[in-house]
Amino acid sequence: REENKLFVTRYLPDIVQLQRRVRDKFLHRLDRREVSETNIKSFLNKIKKESKKDSEELSRLVDSFSKAWSIIGEDVRKNGRLTTDTALELQEITPATPLAYLLSSTTGEGALITSLIDYLVAIHNSFVQAYRGRVSWSRSDKIPLRELDTSHMIEYEEHMQSLLLSHAHYSLAFGQGSHVTYDFEGVEQQFIEQFIQNKPLILAEHLKFEYA
């Protein structure tokens, strides 16, 4: 279960980038009514008329946001910072979802993405802090949310099979065939050194949106 949560943190840089791109498309001047009445599909169609490349990139970022919410939304509703806001009751992010759900706020539609980001930051930081608590870590590496990119995240999925195989021990017993055992302590140590050791803590300073 904890591994599933860690997996979802891979989408965090895309979600932060999505917010930045939407803000920039509005030239930092957002109309509260417009973002509530405009859905994601119509926004992307408008961007596509200006730049197909930008539209495709925004679609990819929206897809990351949608996947993260579909995987962990239930946990955020139960354990997130803004659990009482009705915006969190949204079951999935679709093309018909209002654009306001992409812009952080503490109330209304934007409370969903705020809670999701906070929750993903907390998951990432909990793994990093668990490692630092074991090794007398003296440095204080922290990065603001606005500067986050994939290099700061704990990404390991593509390497887990080779990691396990590197710590596998094979034996043969007469009449019983081969037997495989794993050095799980070695797996854990290499996992920490390779994927967690140099990762920073994330400061959850949300991107601010000013409405005209």
What's the helix and strand layout?
Layout: H1 2-8, H2 12-25, H3 32-37, H4 40-50, H5 52-79, H6 111-135, E1 142-144, H7 160-166, E2 168-173, E3 177-182, H8 184-196, E4 201-203
Parallel strand pairs: 1-4
Antiparallel strand pairs: 2-3
What's the quick description here?
The chain contains 8 helices and 4 strands, in the order ααααααβαββαβ.
Provide structural commentary.
This protein is mainly alpha-helical. It is 52% helix and 8% strand. The chain has helices at 2-8, 12-25, 32-37, 40-50, 52-79, 111-135, 160-166, 184-196, and strands spanning 142-144, 168-173, 177-182, 201-203. It is elongated. It has 8 helices and 4 strands. The strands form 2 sheets. It has a two-stranded parallel sheet.
Helical coverage, percent range: 40-55%
Oligomer: single chain
User: Helices and strands: which structural class?
Assistant: mainly alpha
- Topology as a string of helices (H) and strands (E): HHHHHHEHEEHE
Mean of all residue-level pLDDT scores: 81
Spatial strand sequence of the major β-sheet: 1-4
Overall 3D geometry? elongated
**Sheet with most strands:** 2 strands, parallel
Radius of gyration over all CA atoms, rounded: 21 Å
Q: Counting H and I runs of at least 4 residues, what is the number of helices?
A: 8
Tell me the strand percentage band.
5-15%
Number of β-strand runs: 4
- Parts with pLDDT < 50 across at least 5 consecutive residues: none
First-to-last CA distance: 43 Å
